[in-house]
Inverse folding.
């Protein structure tokens, strides 16, 4: 079950995520690639993502 974070919890989570991104080069690379894929209208199915995860490509 997903829950919407609000107020201080939302701000703390946002700060944590930004710090994680700043300190993790691999995560930065994945985000850059995702942005390029989105800009290029390249879409992946759930099956393709799962297969890439199983093969260790993600």
């Amino acid at each position: 079950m997903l829950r919407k974070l609000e107020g201080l919890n939302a701000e703390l989570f946002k700060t944590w995520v930004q710090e994680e991104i700043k300190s993790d080069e691999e995560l930065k690379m994945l985000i850059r690639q995702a942005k390029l894929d989105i800009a290029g209208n390249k879409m992946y199915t759930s099956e393709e993502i799962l297969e890439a995860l199983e093969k260790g490509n993600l």
The mean pLDDT is 89. The helical segments are 7-23, 25-39, 46-55. The CA atoms of residues 26 and 32 lie 10 Å apart. The longest helix spans residues 7-23.
